[in-house]
Amino acid sequence: MRLSRLSLIAVAALAGTACTTVATAPLAPAAAPFQFDPAALSQHVQVLGSDAFEGRAPNSPAEQKTVAYIVDQFAKAGLHPGGAVVDGRRTWTQPVPLLQSNWAATPHLAVHIGGQQIDLTQGNEIAARAPTNGDKQIAMTDVPMVFVGYGVKAPERGWDDFKGMDLKGKVLVMLVNDPDFEGGEGDFGGKAMTYYGRWTYKYEEGARQGAAGVLVIHETEPASYGWATVKNSNTNTMFDIVRADPKAEHPPVEGWIQRDLAAKLFEASGTTFDAMKAAAKRKDFRPVALKAGFTAHGNADAQVITSQNVVGLLPGTTHPDETVLYTAHWDHLGIGQPDANGDAIYNGALDNATGISQLIEQARAFASEPRTQRSVVFLAVTAEEKGLLGSEYYAANPLYPLGKTVGVLNTDSMGVFGQAKDFSISGTAKLGLLDDLVEEGAKLGRTFTPDRHPETGGFYRSDHFTMAKVGVPAISFKSGGDLVNGGLARGEAIAKDYTAKRYHQPDDEWSPDWDFSGMVDDARLLHALGMRLANGREWPNWSADSEFRAARDKSAGDRR
Q: For the segment 196-210, what is each residue's pLDDT rounded down to a tens digit?
């Protein structure tokens, strides 16, 4: 085990063996270091985040334009094609088959309370996703509704919100996040969100319960974003990977409802929102049948389409079968409902043109320097905004062996507000890759700060998570919040403002006021870590108590 003292302090006793290190081979003679250019980083973001790229939705003309831009930049940087093999030669892309679903027309949605039907407006009281369970028609009238607390079944924690109740054919109403969220302590590790708190898990569990639908109650603080983000992310085109049995993962109806609507449902059932929320925090909670029914009628245009991951490669000199993987997602929400200003293009400049910009310039840096001993792969994935689908497909269909993938360095929504004294990763993690990052950051005069808001579930919200699930050591880098200009107060204010006014909204646009000097520092740090891994013999691992350790250990024989 090799955990630095600085890292131990930073991660507050995240114990467990986290990496295996053997002697490092001598490096090739050093060339003049690549100088990351803030103007180049800004230019990529300005282009990819412009209206001309129409929000970079998968399976759109904007996808073709985006893929062509990334391929062109990878080629100009000096990368080799690293994608699927066609006619004996690697191409620049990995085809990703996806199920695409759109509402053919606005669905009719309603609740029945006290013998009255209350029609709901899509995007206002409710945000119902076009079905991705294979159905092309939703037709349910006055289906019984049941409140199931947080919708969690976690036997390893002694927690079961369902208590054996037969919920087949019912519409389940659930709270977002974990039972610990507000109290800060309990069976789910306190404030930090577990996967049980994510809306993706709640839909999956609803399918396992045989539910007709799952409606997640939105509250801004436990969700970590406002209703505008929910509306914009769930009322447009939906995607999923092509599954053998999609109904095992998705109930017919998936959606969110506003807190006020949930409160009406509870009041009609003789209780209150606060009382139900308090009950749901207890391990002895039992499902509550609501005196309400749910109606949904709509048709979906569902078809299988093919999107693309873009892949560039720099083959290693002595261990080309071992890979260091840099990742970022190229997609955003595309064209959707207009905002108050009439803007319907969800540009996604920060999220995630910044990550792709870093990926391109990182590729240019590696290509300009002597080849590394291990291969370095640069992967721009599709459909992250639809559920981490491009990276999930890669994890299930890897182009390079997962057992010999050294680690994944993901970038998603990077800092464009100047230099920072610190840096972080999304969520909490227990792995040797973090220790390496902390050590390289210290060499550059920067300190590691654990995720200040683990309650947002950041670890489960970006493409490193799908790689972690199959055992590959993976982190998603976060730019620091303790800014040189303005300190932590300014950093927190910027983050709060972005989440409220720009995240998954049309106003996520490039600005000439952005300062890319911080991204330069971040790219330098990520480069140092990648070089260390690509020119070394280290195999980072998860800590002994990590939920991902077993999957990594299964492939240990590949690394002998």
A: 999 999 999 999 999
Burial of 344 (0-12, 13-18, 19+ CB in 10 A): middle
Q: What pLDDT does 14 receive? A: 32
Coil, strand, or helix at residue 173? strand
With bands split at pLDDT 50, 70 and 90, how would you rate the model's confidence at 504? very high
* All structural domains of the chain with their residue ranges: 5-17+37-81+315-554, 101-302
Nearest-angstrom CA–CA distance, 293 and 142: 4
Coil, strand or helix at 201:
helix
CATH architecture of the domain covering 101-302 = 3-Layer(bba) Sandwich (3.50)
Helix (H) or strand (E) holding 300: strand 288-314
| 259 backbone dihedrals φ, ψ, rounded to 5° | -55, -40
Measured distance CA(448)–CA(9) in Å, rounded: 10
CA distance linking residue 20 with residue 433, whole number of Å? 11
The fraction of the chain above a pLDDT of 70, given in percent, is 94
d(CA 327, CA 286) in angstroms, rounded, equals 42
The string of pLDDT tens digits covering residues 301-316 is 999 999 999 999 999 9
By residue count, the chain amounts to 560
At 236 the pLDDT is 92
Dihedral angle over CA of 429, 431, 436, 437, nearest 10: -20
Handedness of CA 218, 220, 223, 227 (dihedral sign): positive
- CATH number of the domain at 5-17+37-81+315-554, please? 3.40.630.10
Asked if 463 contacts 456 with a C-beta cutoff of 8 angstroms, the reply is no
Place of tokens 């310039």: 361
Report d(CA 549, CA 139) in Å as an integer: 44
Query: Sorting pLDDT into bands at 50, 70 and 90, what band is 26?
Result: very low
Paired strand residues for 239: 100
Long-range contacts, 162-168 (Cβ 8 Å, 24+): 162/209, 162/287, 163/285, 163/286, 163/287, 165/286, 165/287, 167/209, 167/210, 167/211, 167/287, 168/209, 168/210, 168/211
